[in-house]
Amino acid sequence: MKRKKAVALKYDKGYKAPIVTALGAGKIAESIINLASENKIPIVENKDLTESLSMLNLGDTIPQELYETVAEIIAYIHRISSKIEDF
Fold it and tell me: Which GO terms describe its biological process (predicted)?
């Protein structure tokens, strides 16, 4: 059985690209997911993206080949966040 992996990203205006703020496997991944959930941070499951991002180090910006995928996720999060705020 493969160990669960998790990667947290942060993006603010002015950033060149999103940066890795947390990553881990197994119990660390579970802690990242639980912390995000407790703080109402949206969680998106994407195994392929997680595999690619898990090769990076803390503080790294995402590589250009992942921009489109991550941009789609950020747009999705903005859409669901605005719907929640309007509710």
Answer: protein secretion
